[in-house]
Amino acid sequence: MSEVRERRANWWRVFGAPIVIGVLSLAGLLSALLAGDPGRYFAWFGVGLPIAIVVWAYCRK
Amino acid sequence: MIFHHEIDEALGYAPKMDVHAPGAAKLSLDAIGRAAIADHPGSVLLYMAWDKDEPGMVSTFTNASVTSDPQTTVVKAFDAYTAKPVGLLGTGPMLVMLRLHTDMYLGLPGKWFMGLMGFLFMVAIISGVVLYWPFTRRLNFAAIRKQKSRRVLWLDWHNLLGVITIVWALVVGGTGVINAYAEVMLGIWQRNELAAMAAPYAGKPTPTQLASLDKVVGNAMKTTPGMDPAFIAFPGTPFTSTHHFAVFLRGDTPLTSRLVKPVLLDGETGDVSDTSELPTYLKAVLVSQPLHFGDYGGMPLKIIWALLTVFTIIVLGSGLYLWTVKRSKVRRGARLSAGVTAAIGPSS
């Protein structure tokens, strides 16, 4: 029982962040197409998020 | 391709528009049409198009006849106020890049090939997702093991860059595939929806005396207030019937400006014959174009698009590196075990 729960926690640890990033990317890709200027600003955030993560991963110790 | 507009401008392949006094009157479309024909005597007009970002410019497409090879069509920009030619469009190094990117100068087979490559790209991404779990299940997100070997460092970067760009890469790959088959889908539309719209006029000859373009566009715009013409297709071209003008109207948002609406007008009288919505599959093609090239959210989005492209190239390169390293390791391992077997003799 606890093994199952542990496995599930592990699954979320591995895939949680990628899923959140993926959802934000998709929302950003669509928002610039559908939601005018505010959508455009959100797109810069959502689609640009992977770049911020890479900068963070590269610069951290 | 992301920056094609800027590159064209920098290299001088974009037409330079004169500045006109505010309130200056544009010439009639018929005058622009006459100027285009005068510029290429003996040819006919195929299309006239308007650039959303250059309201003072009209693009004209001329060729020897409406059925001539599309590759020989001349696209020239005219000043909407003076009917002065301001430059050829669709020339220069960016056109070469576009052809290399879409069909490699091989026509339809080239497009089918590129579509297949796009599909394989998506398959490769999915396979990467499948491998992500066994390689990272003991690690935190974005773990980069710097103290380990070069192979492990590249493996971690490959996994990180890959996993955070999955959605973007699938969208760019998928919309690229859709674009590769755009011509096929356009053909389906011509044979079905367009043919049905033009069916009542079947057998009518190509009009000898064409209606006034201003009347045609004016009538078309009256059908849908709030929309502007994107382009006119002249009778006999692939975007309309032999008897009709087709005016394609567009809205003014990033989405509605892509989702053009065709209006069919009688070639001789300029009266509206039919309006329709494009079928879903053609709408998908039109919406997929910005999502492939990333040119719909201003300069910041273009820069982001370019950086994500660099990430994808790094993922592909590091993937190849990891694969070759693993292969040579396996081979060395096989050689080693073969040597050991030879030294100690086959075990019975």
Automatic annotation (TrEMBL), chain A:
The residues that cross the membrane are 12-35, 41-59
Sorted keywords for this record are: Membrane, Transmembrane, Transmembrane helix
**Tree of life domain:** Bacteria
Name used for this protein in its record: DUF4175 domain-containing protein
